[in-house]
Amino acid sequence: MGFGLTFEKMLLIGLIAVLLVGPERLPRYAESFAKLVRRGGELLRDTKSRVREEMGPEITDVDWRKLDPRQYDPRRIIRDALFEDDPAPVKAATALVEPAASAFPVRPPIERHEFSRTSPPPFDSEAT
Question: Keywords assigned by UniProt (predicted)?
């Protein structure tokens, strides 16, 4: 059973339910609870079968533990990314250090303007 419920805790919950509901109404509530549990089980089985239908035979190949968010460890992910033995990033890094002659287009130098009282910078009165 899940949620940390032991037999003793279930027995205590049942005893409290008997005291709160009373012996005359207890059979009716127990029957309603049994129907609810039965309906929940049917819903769970229907959901499982629908997922199997939707995913097809690939559902057996899915590693559900790998998809568990509790398995997420940022330190491990960073360590794996930094220390993996993939030669592709090394090639890309050396290409950036030693670019080809035609890799970058030559731009004309930027013109510098000197502004003064007689030659103020352009001002757009509609923009402010």
Answer: Membrane, Protein transport, Translocation, Transmembrane, Transmembrane helix, Transport
End-to-end CA, the chain: 69
Is residue 37 predicted with pLDDT exceeding 90? yes
d(CA 120, CA 7): 87
pTM beyond 0.70, yes or no: no
User: Quick one: DSSP state of residue 118?
Assistant: S
DSSP single-letter state for residue 117:
S
Residues written for the chain: 128
**Average pLDDT for 5-16:** 88
CA 125, chain centre distance (Å) = 49
| DSSP sequence for 72-106 | --HHHHHHHHHH---HHHHHHHHHHHS--TTSSPP
Which one-letter amino acid corresponds to residue 23?
P
pLDDT (tens digit per residue) in 81-101: 888 665 555 455 555 555 555
Is residue 27 within 8 Å of residue 34, measured between CB atoms? no
More confident residue, 127 or 2: 127
